[in-house]
receptor protein-tyrosine kinase (Magallana gigas), 298 residues
Amino acid sequence: MEFLVKFVSVVLLFASSVLGVEIISVVEQSVFGQGDECYGTHVGFGYSGTPEFHYESLLRRYRGCKHVEGNLEITNLQSDQISYDLSFLSTIEVVTGYVLLGLLDLESIPLTNLKLIRADNMFNIMGEDYGLVVAFTDAAGENKNRGLRELQLPSLKEISRGRVLFMQNPLLNFVNTIAWNVIVPGVTNPVTYGDSAYNTTSLEVCDPACENGNQRFCWGRGPKMCQIVHFPICDELCPGRCYDSTIVGCCHPECAVGCTGPSNSDCLMCKYFKAGEACVSSCPGGVSVRNGQDCLED
Ligand SMILES: *[C@@H]1O[C@H](CO)[C@@H](O)[C@H](O)[C@H]1NC(C)=O
């Protein structure tokens, strides 16, 4: 199997000199990752090339990707010459580093299937480490009515490390309705609200379907944007998450999100990798023998 892959890529590399551009996308797959996996970036608010080139490289990097190894940085999408379509982001489920959303004047960021931000690597601003940063999402130009209005992270269940920062998002709605302490475990005040963190005079309200107790929790308009909140009863001594039920119990440290029992095969989601039914911190055959979180049979 491995031999075949190598052989095919050698043939393709050879063919690329004959066929030119067509083959570049195939070679890129090996640079950007394989299967459901892709590699993130580490440039912060920077970018290189023209706005068009920058947008196209985001597309190439993340299209079809489920598992981002590294940081997901979606920034510098502010050209009024480009009609941005970020729907390709909806395949992403896991980010192993931090998520940075900034310098955007788009209405929404459709990371609708993102479940876990593991934040192995955190974004440091002024001495504080963050797993999620949303900043400078108002329009760069004249039009002050353009900018981020909805965060749209309805599947987000855990930010394993770091805190959350919002600043300069004057049009952003709903983020103050989110129960952040359920997403960021073990941190008392998980969110920093900087200047114009969100629209504090917003009249937008969550859909009635988002009601839980006497409160509504949501990421955007409509019933699909509800935050589904379970408030687990958690003992302070639990090392990670707690049972996703009314029974008090600590999840196994290999679990992300929550669990139904104490073992590493009772996890709602794995923090690192999944070998058969069990969550593990490394795959039996070594970390390269996997696709995203799934360990592969060698
Ligand atoms: C905030 O929301 C209110 C009501 O929805 C709206 O009138 C106002 O323009 C918004 N603020 C900004 C800065 O857009």
Remarks:
- The chain has three domains: 1-33, 35-207, 247-296.
- The pocket of 2-acetamido-2-deoxy-beta-D-glucopyranose is lined by residues 170-171, 199, 201-204 (CB under 6 Å).
